[in-house]
Automatic annotation (TrEMBL):
Cofactor detail note: Binds 1 Mg(2+) ion per subunit.
Residues of the active site: 154, 252
Keywords: Isomerase, Magnesium, Metal-binding
Organism: Flavobacterium degerlachei
Protein name in the entry: Dipeptide epimerase
Mandelate racemase/muconate lactonizing enzyme C-terminal domain residues: 135-226
Cofactor(s) the protein needs: Mg(2+)
Amino acid sequence: MISIEIKPYLLNKKHVFRIAGGARTNTPVLLVKLKYESFVGYGEASMPPLYGETVETAQAFIKSFDFTKFTSPLEFATIIKHLDKHAPGNTAAKAAIDIALHDLLGKMMKVPLYQYFNLEKKELKTSKTIGIDSAEIIEKRVEEAANFHYLKIKLGGDNDAEIIKAVRNVSDKPLFIDANQGWTNKEEALDKIAWLKEENVVFIEQPMPKKAFADMEWLVSRSTLPLIGDEGIQRLEDVKMASNFYHGINIKLMKSTGLHEAFAMANLAQSLNLKIMLGCMSETSCAIAAAAHLGAMADWIDLDGNLGVTNDPYQGHELINGCIHLNDNHGIGLINPNWDNIETYV
């Protein structure tokens, strides 16, 4: 029989994190441990307020899900199907169980998850995210990220030009731009894209509001840079029509309900010739380690959510000079997780 334990936790950020939609200093998460016989699997639900889940809703969802009807994690497909039908929404809570189940399966099969998915083991050049801030602080953050190959810059406020100028004062690295739905006029958005192309920008993530379908359809046909859907692309169903509004998609485990659907989304995106970005929320090394196993499917990696926190309770894959190096530990790849010593923070 599968048993489950949960621990509420509060991830504290090293710096105030500002995007076009607001600012915060921490992220509530729910840590999950599944046990089956001698095997233990770990998962995580990260719940930034933007997406509507809380520690309370995640706990209620997980406590109301009946694991006793399943005899083994090997009934994975059935468990995942029941999990998704158990209640609408709750994507991060579902992701926590999905990740823990995959961790269990990898350990039972004695393989790291990239092998479970029949993927290559690749060196993953992740971007380092710089939030909206004053020019002085942005310059400092960029200098601190000198070892990374790409910088992800948050725009969408009223000081986009000031931010880019500050970045370029101290770095000429290629940039990923995330507007977080902050541009609301399509003509102005197109002008900004033309400007940013000259600033060594690789792509623009979610330039306009996710429901501005007509504007995004207009913009995607004219943009000289790839446009990547984030808030506008949540789950597998969204990928089917994504090419009408975007050139690519940002897959995040907390939106997709976990690795199972994220893998399906990536396969569908590839079949539709959509670019793939692999992203994250503010997360512990648990969810980051899990997502990294899908890295071989992605054109761009943005898995730095564990790097901007002060109290990561786990250790996962090694980061060297801005590159994630997958280890060959069975399952998701956590190194000596010590569940009993993790203090509840919420």
